[in-house]
Design a protein that fits this description.
It is a single chain. With 542 residues, the chain is of the alpha+beta class. The chain has 17 helices and 23 strands. It starts with a helix and ends with a strand.
């Protein structure tokens, strides 16, 4: 009897266990379905970039990327379409009659992503930490002109300048360095140039996950004061190679491609002609150019620089590399930018003229030798480009072949982006690819950077030191930036830009554009006024 009861009991327990497993399984399946449903409902957009986003510090430079800094941090004012300066974190502002005082009336409905208040005190603290590291930022003349920062009251911030400075509001729209981090982001030293405890901004996105050199995930800032993004997440994958980026796009591992040089023009054309995807090109954003290092012995000779100008067939590059999508540039800045329209003679492609100038410079063709020589030295120049920039690579290879025909040996130097800029800023190159900075930087900030060795600036300062007119040029740039007379300002800009053209240290190639390629289920992929911004906030998944 005992044995029978025991077996019955065991059978009963077994049935209960089976029932429990079944119920639990159903419950887990339901939860899995709920989770899958939540995941399906979440709108996620995947993007790629050639390198890491950096440590997301708006007060520092490389390896920070412009687009990711703009996602998290905001400015007092915003550079809108057509150059309109729009209210942003400041609702309005007053400018004194003498142009030296700017009073900003801040929005009262803004908090940082951690819920801490945005007010005049934190604005002043951010300005002051940037000013404490002024040598890093002196490429931006506003930094040199700020005399006093003052929190007048909780929501009123006052900026006093040494001199009236006409681009003040424009420079306050820049993505860096005058944007704002929350109190909890400051390191113990209070010096943000040493790094942040965490990236805390007022912008529409919050960094939620990060794997260095692999992936960064941004989620919508639910505390955002403005129009919130339409998607819940942006995933940024690091894909250094352009062709790998195209393959990832075709496999739907990424949703869209955006920027300049992120894929080759061949790939853009292929994706466009397939008819499977949406493709766009922006209006011209900046001037694509080659910079000559006049501090190198060979390139101090203007005849060699002029020879290189005439040896480069811009139209062939536009026809065969850009498929006619870019327009030929003859000057450093597009004539559509304020103060930049000048009456100069373009350096047209003329191989015979180039040969003549090379001969006059003493670089003679030697029978039986492929390259010209002078005093026993071969005419070899190093052309440096960013390894992940597909367009720079294509132009570099073209230039190498064309210059070779004239007896110029071009050695191509490919560098990862961080090493590229380190070498460039040290002046360790003969030729490199560069570009003007586009709006709102051109022409004033680009020219300002020429005058200073500021680490956050550009390689142009050192590259132009070999010009006999460099000191005079720097003086005129400083003068034009502080000019208050519009007629005189126009005259000074004309003089400066004409001098740069005549010195032939820049070889303008074309007016570059941003490219966008995206799957048809995406909408809101638009081009923003600053070329370094990616329109994550307006993008939607249909």
């Amino acid at each position: 009897m005992f044995v029978k009861q025991s077996n019955l009991f065991r059978s009963f327990i077994g049935l209960l266990v089976i029932l429990a497993i079944f119920v639990t399984g159903c419950s887990n399946a339901a939860n899995d379905q709920d989770n899958a449903s939540d995941k399906d409902q979440a709108k996620v957009v995947t993007f790629s970039w050639s390198g890491d986003i950096g440590d997301l510090n708006p007060h520092t430079y490389f390896p920070n990327q412009w687009f990711s800094q703009a996602m998290v941090y905001e400015s007092l004012v915003y550079y809108g379409e057509g150059g309109e300066i729009k209210p942003w974190l400041a609702e309005s502002w007053d400018i004194s009659k003498d142009g030296k005082e700017y009073v900003f009336h801040l929005r009262e409905d803004v908090t940082f992503s951690d819920g801490s208040p945005f007010n005049a005190a934190i604005v002043k603290k951010n300005f002051d930490t940037v000013l404490a590291n002024a040598p890093q930022h002196e490429w931006m003349e506003l930094i040199n002109q700020i005399k006093v920062t003052e929190a007048v009251d909780e929501f009123t911030f006052k900026l006093t300048l040494h001199n009236p400075y006409y681009p003040t509001l424009q420079e306050l729209t820049y993505i860096r360095p005058l944007r704002f981090v929350g109190e909890a982001a400051f390191p113990d030293s209070q010096n943000t140039f040493e790094g942040l405890k965490e990236p805390i901004g007022t912008g529409p996105w919050v960094l939620s996950e990060y794997k260095k050199n692999e992936e960064a995930v941004f989620t919508r800032n639910e505390k955002y004061w403005g129009t919130k993004p339409k998607v819940d997440k942006v995933v940024v994958k690091v894909i250094p190679d352009g062709e790998s980026r195209v393959l990832a796009f075709e496999k739907e591992e990424i949703d869209f491609i955006f920027g300049n040089g992120v894929i080759s023009q061949d790939s853009f054309q292929f994706l466009k002609e397939s008819g499977k995807y949406e493709t766009k090109l922006s209006e011209p954003t900046a001037t694509r150019a080659m910079l000559f290092n006049t501090n190198r012995e060979a390139l101090k000779d203007i005849k060699l620089r002029l020879a290189l100008q005439h040896a480069f067939n811009k139209q062939a590059v536009i026809d065969h590399i850009f498929y006619g999508t870019e327009k030929k540039a003859d000057t450093l800045f597009a004539p559509t930018i304020p103060y930049t329209k000048i009456d100069v003679k373009p350096y047209e492609y003329d191989a015979e003229k180039a040969k003549q100038l090379l001969d006059e410079a003493g670089w003679k063709q030697v029978e039986g030798k492929p390259f010209r020589k002078k005093d026993g030295e071969t005419l070899q120049l190093e052309l440096m480009f960013i390894s992940t920039d597909n367009i720079q690579k294509a132009i570099a290879e073209y230039a190498q072949g064309e210059f070779r025909k004239l007896g110029i040996d071009i050695k191509l130097i490919s560098k990862e982006e961080e090493n590229f800029w380190t070498t460039a800023n040290e002046g360790g190159f003969d030729l490199l690819f560069t570009a003007s900075w586009g709006v709102p930087f051109d022409p004033h900030s680009y020219l300002s950077a020429i005058t200073t060795a500021s680490e956050g600036g550009s390689p142009d300062h050192k590259a132009l030191l070999g010009l006999p007119v460099k000191k005079e040029l720097d003086g005129k740039i400083k003068e034009v930036l502080l000019s208050t007379d519009e007629v005189k300002r126009n005259m000074l800009y004309k003089d400066i830009l004409t001098t740069l053209h005549e010195q032939a240290a820049y070889l303008p190639i074309s007016y570059q554009s941003n490219a966008a390629v995206y799957h048809k289920d995406l909408s809101g992929v638009n081009f923003l006024p600053q070329e370094y911004e990616v329109p994550f906030t307006s993008i939607d998944v249909n």
